[in-house]
Fold:
Amino acid sequence: MHFESGVGHIGGNLSALDALLVLHHEFLRPHDLFVLSKGHAAGALYVVQWTLGIRSDDELATFHRDDTALPAHPPARAPQTPFASGSLGHGCSLAAGSALGLRLRREPGQVYVLTSDGEWEEGSTWEALIFAAHHRLANLTILIDRNGLQGFGTTASVASLDSLAEKIAGFDVEVRVVDGHDPRAIRTALIAPSERPRVIVLETVKGHGIAFMEDRLEWHYRPLTRELYELALEALEKTP
Amino acid sequence: MREAFRDALLRRAHERTVVLTADVGFDVLEPLAGCLGDRFINAGVAEQNMIGVAAGLAARGFEVWVYGIASFTYARAFEQLRNDLGFLGHAVRVVGNGGGYGYGVMGPTHHALDDYGTLLAIPDFAVYVPAFASDIDALVARAAASAVPCYLRLARAEADEPTAPPFAAWRRLCAGVETSVITIGPLAASYARAFERLAPERRPSLWSVGELPLGTLPPELLAEIAQGRSVLVAEEHVAQGGLAMQVAYACARAGANIARFETAHARHRFDRYGSQAWLRARDGLDAARIVERCVG
Structure:
């Protein structure tokens, strides 16, 4: 999909894919809500929605093309994506407001939001964390795709927040750090109940699953050449 | 006007009304807090988050009002207003207190001189600007009924307001000759008082605009323009994106040829500061200067 459209961002899509699959297949119910704050992983989200049968092959084939309903970041006013994200630092506030709305209406439902790790350089993300903690939004789960690489460097080299989990734990929230490519670990973290907002730090690898992409900065933006695409397919076929 | 706003909202509040404030409204909003209980939320000094939270609440079916100092609310949170309200079409009501030079000598960070011009660039954003305290009730009702996000620019009402006709998007506050003055916000009240003191044969006509973007120009105004009158647009807003540009655009689209088009508008200046009255006078927006420009 990314290759055929000549689009980048595949590294951050692959780092988020495992968590998106577990969340959507095992946890999200009709009264729940998912907000993709790291909007550049829209491709992974569209694919996960395809695995659930709510998007067709034909629809996916339009990804990133002219006249598509599937742009590189989630679109506005579309039923499968409640908010148009893509500018980082919006999703946690949108999710917090949604969670508060559910609570005020005394309705069931969990609100999940997936952020990137670079996104925690945005002040508005911390504003939202302060708000969620203060209001004890127990129906809110913030997932962080901690792949350690952002657009133009490692998160450690650009604006180190190490340890991000420890900093977030300074707020009145429940923090867990798990292997973001281990479905069992993700599942265990998502099952664990809490009376406070939950923050799950997913330790991930950018470009996960494709050896030549893994933990490589260039795969934040770089589109695949045909040669590399075929190499990636070959590698995937050999994966048990 | 903020007290009138509070009272209007208190009268209208229902079980889906939510009010968020960016830590302002002390000594004013307390009755709303008492009425709304957990649906009154002090979101703290965090305007970006407040707008995002408001969008989330609106998506869950609440009638959401956010309240803050005008300049902080629209400027700090512009991207949230555009992406999370405008793009998504969530009809959150954004209430900015101290529009224009309302915060006077507090300084330039507190002036909202580019608010409606900025917000009108966002898709489907409506702007309401009361001229009189008595407009607030009607405007709160309009904002409550709005299907699109909107901005209510509250300002300090004139101390000596003339009797105001009921709110309308366009109101002719007085008929006159030679010049048609078009203005927005409480300047209208101050000009109306000054024009009352002029002899009828010297008096300009005075129009007050209360809703943006401008709809169709009223036929009476087009008739005045067709008579060859000058038009003077005065506003407590910078020229770019302001009312004057919208009037000129609307006239051009309507094929109305204005004989002479003049403006008076606010300017970002950083040399000296003063009260709202002083700042208006500095920018030639006070009633005396407008009268002088119209009748010499």
Summary: Chain A has a mean pLDDT of 94. The radius of gyration of chain A is 17 Å.
